[in-house]
Amino acid sequence: MAKEKTAKKQAPAENETNEKVEIIKIISKLTKIPEDNINKNSNMHFSETGIDSFALVEIIFEIENRFDISIPQDSLVSVKNVDGLVKLAGKLRKK
Question: How many CA atoms lie within 13 A of 78 on its CB side?
């Protein structure tokens, strides 16, 4: 029984990791920035990583399509980096 609880606790972290991997792939594909660089700098502000506002719009659109979610514009105001985008996408997928 204890093993079942452990598995349930690990599942969200695994889902978040999978989401992060997918989002990093999307960003890399659209910006031509290597995935390793995006992952290493996932807590840096988008502008510091070379992702401009036009690229960010494309990234958001692709994430919405990939995860079948709708990201409200007002939610994006607080998203400053890849980690924030991963958290927002994960939150919206759970709804």
Answer: 9
80: tokens are 């400053």
Take residue 38 and report the two structure tokens written for it. Answer: 């995006």
CATH topology of domain 27-94: 1.10.1200
Mean pLDDT, the chain cut into blocks of 10 residues (95 residues total) = 45 69 97 95 93 94 96 92 95 87
Provide the residue ranges of all domains of the chain, joining segments of one domain with +: 27-94
Tell me 81's DSSP state: B
Whole-structure pTM value: 0.80
Q: Alpha-carbon Rg of the chain, whole angstroms? A: 14
